[in-house]
Amino acid sequence: MLKKDFSCGIISNMIDLQDIWQDALIELVKNPSINAVAYSIWIENLKPVCLKNNALVLLAPSQNAKDTVNKSFFSYIEDSVKRVRPTISNIDVITNEELALISKDSDFTHGDEFVVSSNKKTAVDSPFIARYTFDNFVVGESNKLAFYAAKSVAEKPGSSDGYLNLNPLFIYGGVGLGKTHLLHSIGNYISKKFPSLKIVYMPTENLANEYFAALEKTSSDKNAYRNFIDKYNSVDVLMFDDVQFLKKKIGLQDAIFHIFNSLYQSGKQIILSSDRPPKEIETIEDRLCSRFEGGLLADIGIPNLDMRVAIIRKKMMMEKVAVSDDVVYFLAEKIDTNIRELEGALLKVILYAQLINKPCPDIQTAKEALRVSDAPKKEEIDSNDIVNAVCTYFRINKSDILSKKKTKDIAHARMVAIYLVCDLLSIPLVSIGQIFGGRDHTTIIHSRDKILSSLKTDQRLALQIKDIRSLLNV
Ligand code: ADP
Ligand code: MG
């Protein structure tokens, strides 16, 4: 079934997978049915690998993870993805083994590509990530050249800025520092201001696949290669994201060289991004390198502390969430080289705070959320920590768990706590009985074994126990 779904030869309109997934995650965390720990164990580990024929494919780290996600979270994921991208009609969660099959047997490609003739787009189906705008980009010392150059290009695509040649505009810098954000900002801006211009955005990883697919097809369709070239030759604005992935394949760079020359000569705008300057990309040929260097090279550096603080504040405003100033500085000091990670950390703190009912998280909460706390490691854990974690998780009073009460929720939480104490600590059963309100050791054995046997079939229980282990940092 997978093979059939993904081996279709047409590369459909695709957009930046990472960004769709990031947007979907933001929606997902608003869902009260997904708690922070479940999120960090099951959802966060999914990786978007492909978007094809309107199906988003997510890679799960194991068969067990795939089954759990399908069973417990699929509908939430589906809802969120469809909310951020109404054009996506299907979600598939696959394992590495399935991915290998698809990659081998079809023209499956990682990443994404899209072509827009802006006047056909509406706000809803624009392929550019709506929140990646110039307005949402914090400008500082480390990125101001790239920002202003991107803005100039968006305002007057293809025309030189008098004394500055901005064609091509080559933006480079480390991972998670805003290159894709700027490319999308250009796309969003041009789509709005010049709706008739045709814009192509393409992550470079896909170019080789598209090129070889075109070559392969020429035996049955003699126009296939011409179509490939024409697609790029006919655009007004061409964006290649992450050109460090440009492969050294015979013919490919030649084709790009010709596309580049043709666009350049007709005054079309070219924008490139990379994690390093052109000269340092070993795989690109000299003549292409000198073309890439022919306009403006604008680097994005690591933001300083003030900028990181400003970025966190901006994200808080955009997501309508709040954390105290202490926490803002704590995060900004702790995560200093990658803005994507900084955003991820903020999200984790907010989720964790929701879980433990702290509307405005303090430093301690933030540390716990990021597991940099003085949270006990396995060897330091005692039964008290376990009981506390179970109570926090199930929102049950400690006195109830240790009492004789037999209501369903309390009894369940108690059995889980007993199971975890047995599993994590080397304490005699009799002593465990004493910890749990003076129960007999046979009751302890019964509770432990009941959970053990339920775990074989009950995914929900497995999820709860994983969550609690994670709270305990084990
Ligand atoms: P890159 O393409 O360089 O790897 P991205 O453009 O994907 O990085 O940026 C990663 C995340 O960081 C995105 O969510 C983006 O919005 C955010 N980001 C990066 N730089 C800034 C900035 N200056 N202001 C606001 N957000 C930023
Ligand atoms: Mg990027």
Brief rundown of the structure:
The protein has 474 residues and is an alpha/beta fold.
- Poorly predicted runs: 1-15, 105-113, 117-125, 373-378
Tally of DSSP β-strands: 9
User: Quick check: average pLDDT?
Assistant: 84
What structural class should be given to the helix and strand makeup? alpha/beta
Major beta-sheet overview: 6 strands, mixed
**CATH architectural designation of the largest domain:** 3-Layer(aba) Sandwich
Q: What best-fitting shape do the alpha-carbon axes yield?
A: elongated
Series of H and E elements: HHHEEHEHEHEHEHHEHEHEHHHHHHHHHH
Distance between the termini: 38 Å
Description of the molecule:
The strands form 2 sheets. A 6-stranded mixed beta sheet has the order 4-6-7-8-5-9, sandwiched between helices. Strands 1-2-3 form a 3-stranded mixed beta sheet. The model is unreliable at 1-15, 105-113, 117-125 and 373-378 (pLDDT under 50). The protein has 21 helices and 9 strands. It has helices at residues 2-6, 17-29, 36-43, 63-84, 96-105, 144-155, 179-193, 205-217, 224-233, 252-265, 286-292, 305-319, 325-334, 339-355, 363-369, 383-394, 398-401, 408-424, 429-435, 441-455, 459-471; strands spanning 47-52, 55-59, 90-94, 114-117, 169-173, 198-203, 237-241, 269-274, 296-300. It starts with a helix and ends with a helix. It is elongated. It is of the alpha/beta class. The chain has 4 domains: 17-116, 2-Layer Sandwich (GMP Synthetase, Chain A, domain 3); 144-300, P-loop containing nucleotide triphosphate hydrolases (Rossmann fold, 3-Layer(aba) Sandwich); 305-370, Helicase, Ruva Protein, domain 3 (Orthogonal Bundle), CATH 1.10.8; 383-471, DnaA protein, C-terminal DNA-binding domain (Chromosomal Replication Initiator Protein Dnaa, Chain: A).
